[in-house]
Amino acid sequence: MRLGVLRALSCGLLGPPGRWSCFSALGCSSKITFKARRRMSGPGRSSINVFNREMKKKQKNWAASLEDAHQYDYLRDEVGRRVADRIYDISRSFPLSLDVGCGKSHIAEHLNKEIVHQMILSDISEESLRRRRLTDVPTRCVLADEEFLPFKEKTFDLVVSSLSLHWINDLPGALRQIQQVLKPDGVFIGAMVGGDSLYELRCSLQLAETEREGGFSPHISPYTAVTDLGNLLGRAGFNMLTVDIDDVEIHYPGILEVLMDLQGMGESNCAWNRKGLLHRDTVLAAAAIYKEMYGNADGSVPATFEILYMIGWKPHHSQVTSVDRSTAGATGAANDVILLPE
């Protein structure tokens, strides 16, 4: 893998050292790490600083290292498959692609090398990369913070991302970086958690905490609203935009199982203003409220994940006559956003 790093450097895939916070190539026994000149997120270091990125890195590493970690991958696997379906619906192949926040290669495992010839897997979590799945697509791993992509401009034909961007502090900046590393006429296909996700859990915790403690604190991180997504993509420089929504409803025995699975997914809250612990009485009250307000006849409770899918193209002169590009039937008009309901 050491040779793989040298090839990446010599082929011009990587940008100047100041562009990334941490870069490594992961192999069976060797690792090369380049330290950044740019600091990680921390209190007061950025004008947009909602999430503790170091905490998120620890959460993802811990979750990936669990002996039964595969039991918590069901949502990532399903969303990764749906992102892969959108790649197959584009009538072209992609010589070089990038997965931003790849986890255990939840998208790449659903692809074949006839469509995607090679993929760079990038994630902030070293443990996730070490436990990546076998894929038909040749892959290389880069350990990097999604907020600071370490790649040169106009490098990739395709960039994908699944269930990672909702933890980014500066989402507009991250989308601009993705647009910059794409070649002209390259495409970005992403999926992220939307603003109405886990509304059942959010409401139950707020009501219980207000009743037992006289007020409530944020226990679920803020998410991007679908109405903002098209504007963000347009501002980042993408055109021929498509945004659609899926509601994925998962049933659990109770609120404790919901919280345990979120932790096992590495999806615990990492906002700087999060409250450390929930009181036992508050959790019991929230469990009762959850079942009373949302419970099913069989005693289970639902947890709804709103998944926002997005497709955006980097501008190119050939797009004036290109119409049939993606599953959503996006037209060739620049910055034309098509919203597709479930």
From TrEMBL:
Keywords: Methyltransferase, Mitochondrion, Oxidoreductase, Transferase, Transit peptide. GO terms for cellular component: mitochondrion. Gene3D superfamilies: Vaccinia Virus protein VP39. Residues 98-189 form the Methyltransferase type domain. Signal peptide: none annotated. One of its GO terms (biological process) is mitochondrial respiratory chain complex I assembly. One of its GO terms (molecular function) is oxidoreductase activity. InterPro entries: Malonyl-ACP_OMT, Methyltransf_11, SAM-dependent_MTases_sf. The keyword Oxidoreductase applies. Its main location: mitochondrion. The keyword Hydrolase does not apply. Pfam families: Methyltransf_11. Belongs to the methyltransferase superfamily. PANTHER family: ARGININE-HYDROXYLASE NDUFAF5, MITOCHONDRIAL. This is Arginine-hydroxylase NDUFAF5, mitochondrial. The lineage of its organism: Eukaryota, Metazoa, Chordata, Craniata, Vertebrata. The gene is ndufaf5.
